[in-house]
């Protein structure tokens, strides 16, 4: 079942050091940075698709980042309170491959 809702899917590193953020920035992985709203730590945000999963895994291994310090963040807006959303296969692949938890945020317009 295809969904007509536009999902924003990102992999997040939730507590990077400045050094790790610099390495990520220079790694060639498309990323942005922010500050985690609870911990105030550097958060690395990588737009998720199937082509980047292996690169994320390599970075995690090289930088000794635990999957507990990451998540896969899906967000979307909807006009409906109840809805079935078809999550892209690459999200499931990332959860299995990287071991990160899945976090979903939605806004009812």
Please, could you describe this protein's structure?
- With 109 residues, this protein is an alpha+beta fold.
- The chain is 28% helix and 33% strand.
- It contains 3 helices and 5 strands; from the N terminus they run βαββαβαβ.
- It has helices at residues 18-26, 53-63, 89-98; strands spanning 8-16, 32-35, 42-47, 70-78, 101-108.
- Strands 2-3-1-4-5 form a 5-stranded mixed β-sheet.
- Strand 2 (32-35) and strand 3 (42-47) form a beta hairpin.
- Helix 2 (53-63) packs parallel to helix 3.
- It starts with 7 loop residues before the first strand and ends with a strand.
Bulk shape: globular
Total of DSSP H or I helical runs spanning 4+ residues: 3
Mean pLDDT: 92
- Beta-strand portion reads 25-35%
Uncertain ranges: none
Structural class: alpha+beta
Give the termini separation.
23 Å
């Amino acid at each position: 079942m295809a969904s007509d809702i536009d999902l924003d899917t990102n992999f997040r590193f939730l507590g990077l050091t400045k050094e790790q953020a610099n390495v990520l920035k220079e790694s060639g992985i498309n990323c942005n940075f922010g500050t985690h709203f609870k911990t105030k730590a550097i958060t690395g945000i990588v737009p998720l698709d199937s082509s980047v999963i292996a690169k994320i895994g390599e970075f995690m291994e090289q930088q000794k980042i635990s999957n507990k310090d990451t998540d896969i963040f899906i967000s979307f807006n909807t006009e409906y309170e109840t809805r079935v959303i078809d999550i892209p296969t690459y999200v499931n692949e990332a959860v299995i491959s990287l071991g990160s938890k899945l976090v979903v945020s939605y806004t009812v317009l």
